[in-house]
Structure formats: structure tokens, C-alpha cells
Amino acid sequence: MFKGGLPTNLDNLTSVDAKDMKTALINAASSNYVSDELVAKADDMIAKWNDYSIEEALKEVPRKMDASLGQLLGLAVSDQASQKKILTAYLNHPGDQQSFWESLGSISGNKETANKVQHVLKLGSLTANQPILTAALYKRLEKSDNLFYELASMDANEWSKLITDLSTQEKKSIVPAFIEAETESKRVAIYANQMSVVLEQQYPTHSFFGKLAKQPKDASAFAGVKDDMVMFFSNNPSFDLKSSATLKLLSEENAFNFKGIEDKSKLVIELQSAQRLSAYSTDFGTINALKLEGMDSAYNIVEVPQNTFVHKISAAAGSVEKAQLIYNKAEKNFMKSALYWSKLHPNLSFKTTTTPDP
């Protein structure tokens, strides 16, 4: 098999697909490296290899991490036999990841177990397999309609407090060892920010409205319509900052619920503003800072000299580099818009020739 191009390292070999492994055995037999009798036993050999790989995956604690996959799965599935059954099904599943989760209920014999496993693995991915934090978040599932949407509304300060409280409770740091800094408070801040950013990027709409709801009015760029915006999203949880059409939000064909909204027209204007800003950043602090500066469109951003923009926004954006990226993206969007309009109106053409007067 190794001469057929398969890795000689055990860790790398465990990631090889069963079909590729069998193909390598067949090729090895055709080149007389192994016997045909061995190839006839290929399926049994691969099954035993997969069983070994699964056992190793369940008990191995990756370097500078705090838990094995088995420890995390134990939050949802207590016995190892069931854990092995789930991982075996995953290795042998012919479809994509989504179809695997859909079929896991029948595989495990319990749809609720499948949901629990999926939540545990997603939480483990978020926390970098930190078992104490994962367990604490997992407990919230019982009281939450959608845990990840609620977590997306937490800012870095809230994450820092949770991490610090759990560390105090456990009488040891729960920050993963791979996060290095001069002090423990800096390690906590890095870890907290990491989770906040990941959730902002995965659930930008819930992050925005969740943080808007918690923000004091005197600090909010959306203060004048904040309550209406929060109410609107509560009425319409399917609204998406990235994809929902806001230009015709008030048209009759839209089925959005405006119950309790005081000023629909102003609400729509501010939702459009938030939608434009979400194209430049998923970070709520950055969106708020841009809005406060009156820079909620590509035109308003590029109207400001780049050095001035970076000076004003870099602190909220997190760095000079991030502020520059926002400005560069706004420049590109502005030029695309200008070129689009020039095609619609010949007198706005950017060509060197001019259109004669009629």
C-alpha cells in the first residue's frame, strides 16, 4: 500500500478513505507486491483498521488541547460502544455532512441523540475542545430554543467573564494551552475574542440584533430606532442581514410582521443602513463606529481620505489593517457602482471620448 502512494505515517493513514485503501491493495497485487489472497481479505482488513482508527480517535488528546473526542461525545452519548457506532457510520457514509446528520437519527435509533451529538461537536469546535466550557454551554441547551443564536449575541466581555468564572470555579485556567500570552488575562481575552469572532461570522444577523438589544441607547448609533429594530427581528426571526431584500420591505408582497413598530419608514432606512454596513464587517463594534461617523455606504466611506478613515475606525475595527481592508472594499464597491451607472447613462461614461450634445 505504501508503494501505491498511501502515507506511511499512522496519523495520516487513518484519514485515508476506505475505497482508496482498497484500490492501493489491488494495485499492489497487480504489481506482485502482495498476494491475491490478501486482496480477497481487503474488506475485513479495512474494517479492522477503521475500528482501530476510531478507538484511537476517541481516546487521543491532541497536543495542547484539553480533551479527547470521546470525552466530548460523552456529554451526549455516555457509552463507548454507541460512540464507536456513530463514528463508524460517519466513516462509511457516502453522502455529504448534512445528509449524515439527517440520517444519524435512524443510525443511533434516537433522533434526539443525533441532535445532541451534533450540538456537542459544534460546541467542541467553538471552544477548541475545552471540556469544562463545552459542558457548561451544553447545559444551556435545555433552556434554549436556539443556543448558537444566543451565543452569537455575546460579546468578548461576556465571554471573558464566563471563562474567568469557570476558571475560578474549577480552581484552574480553562483557557486551552495552545493560547499563549504574557498574562492569564491576555490569554482569556484572546480566547474570548476568538469565540466571539467565530460566532459573529457564522451568525452575523443574530450577532447584530442580539448585541443591539443589549447596547445602551446613549452608545448606540441606531438609538432613534433601536427598539423598533429589535422588535422587528423578534417578529421576523428569518430576516437575514446578508440576503433579505430591504428595498421593497414595505411592499404588500412581503410577509414581514411590523406589529408594534412605531415608525416603519425610519425602521426600513436603518435596516438598509445596517445591511450595507454588514457587507464591510460582522463585528458589531465596527458597524456601530462606522454608523456613528456617518459612513454607512461605500460613497460615504471613500469620501473621507484613507488616512483619516483609518485613524477614526482602526480602534473599533481592532487594527489598522482591518480598517484598511474596509476602506479598500468600499473603494471597490464604489467603483463597481460608478461603472454600473456609467453604462446606464452615456454622459457618465468613464471613457476618454465624450458624448456630443444633441
Features:
358 residues, mainly alpha, 19 helices, 62% helix, 0% strand, elongated
Summarize this structure briefly.
The protein is an all-alpha fold and 358 residues long. It contains 19 helices and no strands.
H/E element sequence: HHHHHHHHHHHHHHHHHHH
Q: Segments where pLDDT lies below 50 for 5+ residues?
A: 350-358
Shape: elongated
- Count of DSSP H/I helices: 19
Measured as a percent range, the helix fraction is 55-70%
Strand content: under 5%
Main structural class: mainly alpha
Give the total of beta strands.
0
Distance between the termini: 78 Å
Describe the main β-sheet briefly: none
Radius of gyration: 27 Å
Question: How would you characterize the overall build of this protein?
Answer:
With 358 residues, the chain is mainly α. Among the domains are: 220-290, no CATH class; 297-358, no CATH class. 62% of the residues lie in helices and 0% in strands. It is built from 19 helices and no strands.
